[in-house]
């Protein structure tokens, strides 16, 4: 079960897409889907044609959660081989809280950052996966990580948007966007990702 703040650490809680959606602290997304009907357009909730693919992508995200909670600390000696399986290194474009990593440079980004943050734990909140074609999906969620990095303790939460592409039968990320909310008046980032927009949008 999620903790009191709604965070999920145990990947087994995501036993199915239906279970994933029940954990949302908001209505699930709706989007317009073209249909060859008299009305031409109808609203669909998570297109049922892609239920199989949604389950596949959910397993992908469960794997990421499981990796960081149970495997990562033992995987450093292997060059973070397990984490490498989640990214398409040639195609990955990363906009994270450390900066922007253009396509074609993800390998050096990975080599510098991932081993440094290896000793950590992870939780998800409001994970929602939407598949828009048999080989293309996006996700939104909040992610909480804590542990030690470079010998220093850390505890931070941030927004995460991911785009995954299925190639040769495997889902991999081709884009991720990780960010903190910012108080526009103080220009300070909120490392808890709990800042309310109505309290932070004014410049003075």
Fold and architecture overview:
With 204 residues, the protein is α+β, with helices and mostly antiparallel strands. It has five helices and ten strands. The strands form three sheets. It has a six-stranded mixed sheet with strand order 4-3-8-7-6-5. A two-stranded antiparallel sheet has the order 1-2. β9 (182-183) and β10 (188-189) form a beta hairpin. The longest helix is centred in the first third of the chain and has 25 residues, at 51-75.
Q: What percent of residues are in strands? A: 35-45%
* Unreliable spans: 34-41
Order of strands across the main sheet: 4-3-8-7-6-5
Q: Assembly type of the shown chains?
A: single chain
Structural class: alpha+beta
Order of helices and strands: HEEHHEEHEEEEEEH
Relative helix content: 10-25%
Kindly state the mean pLDDT as a whole number?
92
Give me the count of strands. 10
**Shape label:** globular
Q: How would a textbook summarize the main sheet? A: 6 strands, mixed
How big is the Rg? 18 Å
Number of helices: 5
> Alpha-carbon distance between the termini?
41 Å
Summarize the structure.
This protein has 204 residues and is of the alpha+beta class. The chain is built from five helices and ten strands; from the N terminus they run αββααββαββββββα.
Blueprint (SSEs and pairs):
Layout: H1 17-22, E1 31-34, E2 41-44, H2 51-75, H3 81-84, E3 93-96, E4 99-101, H4 106-113, E5 119-133, E6 136-149, E7 152-167, E8 170-179, E9 182-183, E10 188-189, H5 197-200
Parallel strand pairs: 3-8
Antiparallel strand pairs: 1-2, 3-4, 5-6, 6-7, 7-8, 9-10
